[in-house]
Amino acid sequence: MTGHILAFSGGVGGAKLAAGLCAVLPPEQLTLVVNTGDDFEHLGLTICPDLDSVTYALAGLNDTVRGWGVADETWQAMAMLSQLGGPDWFNLGDRDLGLHLTRAMHLRARESLSQVTERLTGQLGIAHRIAPMSDDPVRTQVETDMGWLDFQHYFVREQCRPQVRGVRFAGADQARPSPGFAEALARADLAAVVVCPSNPWLSVDPILALPGVRDRLKTLCVPVIAVSPLVGGTALKGPLAKLMAELGKPVSNLALAAHYDGLLDHLVIDQADAADAALLRKSGLCATITQTVMREARDRERLASEILAIVGGVD
Predict the structure, then answer these.
(1) What is the DSSP letter of 135?
(2) In b/e form, how buried is each residue of 270-291, taking b as 16+ CB within 10 angstroms?
(3) What are the tens digits of pLDDT across the range 127-150?
(4) What angle (nearest 5°) sits at the alpha carbon of residue 92, between those of residues 73 and 296?
């Protein structure tokens, strides 16, 4: 195909499709914009979970068994931290810690998050462009029955147990899209926007909350294609189904599509949810039914190729 693809990604699920897109597209035809609302400061370091999930997936370093972090990890630093009475609720493996220390060093040297991300991905042999959604701090916060919690406190420390009442993105109104993100949005040869199978409320909404992003997407004359993170009426992992139910939303592809409020042109759904296709089409969306579960590299590449076929078939 010709033209450029802009893809939005959150963490583990999004990283799988991001890896598939990188396998079937050359670097000059793809920009990956990654959620940074999950970022937080911990142990004096800036931790970027979604950026790191995408980076490790593209570098072939991700732990596919555990589902997060680096393969063949060791945990000596965390063991010592725990022994010394430090905060050990957020696990950082020894290899993973090396990346965070390097990031912190360059951020302290006044490099932007985009510059540091480009440096780190280049050192890991990644040719495709991974751009944080913003170089300015945006922090996802979740309103719960325990009060407002920073996302990682809700997700990791509290294991998603509190009931959710709302979500906000602190700093989003003052943040700007990163240079890589802004450049991709403005490209004359932009062919499509692909929303990877990430949580719409927690991973995609922070990207859309940046000033000007929603308005720009609405003016684009290219398809916006999302891959649903729901399979068989639930989420494979993560708090999406629980979150939707607690926010009073049906756990369905129709509710998920409605949440995007007219931004989507096309939703790709799993074959286990084939019955949803008729309602989606009745609502005005195009719908493609396929296998969206990505267990192996060939699954990621097949799904990426199917999405690009949709793009190629759009006049």
Answers:
(1) S
(2) bebbeebbeebeeeebbbbbee
(3) 999 999 999 999 999 999 999 999
(4) 50
At CB < 8 A and 24+ separation, what contacts does 65-74 make? 67/12, 67/237, 68/11, 68/12, 69/93, 69/96, 70/95, 70/96
Host H or E run for residue 227: strand 224-227
Q: CB–CB of 45/103 below 8 Å?
A: yes
Report phi then psi at 140, rounded to 5: -70, 130
Joined together, the tokens standing for residue 235 give: 């989420």
Q: Which of the four CATH numbers 3.30.230.10, 2.40.30.170, 3.40.50.10680, 3.60.15.10 does domain 4-312 have? A: 3.40.50.10680
pTM more than 0.85:
yes
Q: Are 5 and 191 in contact (CB under 8 A)?
A: yes
Question: Helix 12-24 crosses helix 297-312 at what angle (to 10 degrees)?
Answer: 70
Contacting residues for 289 by C-beta, under 8 A, at least 6 apart: 269, 270, 271, 273, 274, 277
pLDDT tens digits, one per residue of 147-173: 999 999 999 999 999 999 999 999 999
Does residue 36 carry a pLDDT above 60? Answer: yes
